[in-house]
């Protein structure tokens, strides 16, 4: 699979697929490009998608820079710091997510507000 590019309000980030959750990764890859107006929840941006994937080795606590699919809301999520669900400094989803990729240097998103345009595409 080709590498990913994530663009948030004109800011471009390189992303790499993970070896986790191959069914989710394939569903996301088949649906690219994906784009939406993102909502912000703590240090997480997410937007709704038409992707349908089942829960696959999902978890709530993830690493900074995680791109994940939220099965409960059919959303694409980008985590870079604590969320309202966090119990420490690590990002924590509202409910389990399927990790499919990692973004380099996501801390540059600290000043992005909800309503930002977010796009995922393959190179």
From TrEMBL:
Gene3D superfamilies with a match to the protein in the record: 2.40.100.20
SUPFAM superfamilies for this protein: Cyclophilin-like
Signal peptide: none
Residues annotated as domain Cyclophilin TM1367-like: 4-109
Annotated protein name in UniProt: Cyclophilin-like fold protein
